[in-house]
Amino acid sequence: MKHIALLGILLTGFYSSRSQERVTSHNNDLWFLLHGNYYLSEKFGFDSEAHLRLSDLGNQKQQILLRPSIYYKLNDNVKFYLGYTYINTYPYGDQPIATRTPENNLWIQASISQKLGQLGLSHRYRLEQRWVGKMTLGNNGFELTDRIHKNRMRYRITAKFRIPTDQRFYFTAFDEVWINYGENTGLNFLDQNWIYGGGGFYINEGTAIELAYMWQLIKKSDGIREESNNTLQLSLHYNLPLKK
To answer: What is the CATH number of domain 4-238?
Structure first.
């Protein structure tokens, strides 16, 4: 798993070298994220995410995503998660899907963090079991007729640096590689690659607002089409202790 990021970089370079065989579309996206962390006890917690993703500088719906999870804190550096994601993906851009498509996604995750002075590093390993809706055009429009099972693994490495002269401000960056495997993979072994960088401000020690730019590469299952997207993301992160 530690070598997934390197593998993704190599695969990205491989596909780029064959760009004459591929059809690439470019989108300019606006994403909004609300992320909450709820401490239930010293060892257990609840995590939630709500995403609103817009394309064409906010003029088209792209995705709506809800992601609740529970976690177990082994120690200060290691957490294990069990989560669920509900996703609605909409037609957008120059390579749109036929209609709005739902997905149900069950996943497990390990998160490992370390601190080097003002620099924090974290590694996130996620395995996903996906059920993607199959939409069929009938007499009454598109209908959900089946769910296609897919598998995916994701690896993200994140760096976060708090400004020594003012701890309220920080810079953050990550690279995340998405790899398909197993049944119904199609021709996109490399599913996505995200490269993210931005800055944030702690409103208080438990709440931060973050603004960042992300480049998103998406490979389509036909092995020909792909997206290269510029994304501006605004996020609000907060921690809320529910224990006494």
So the answer is: 2.40.160
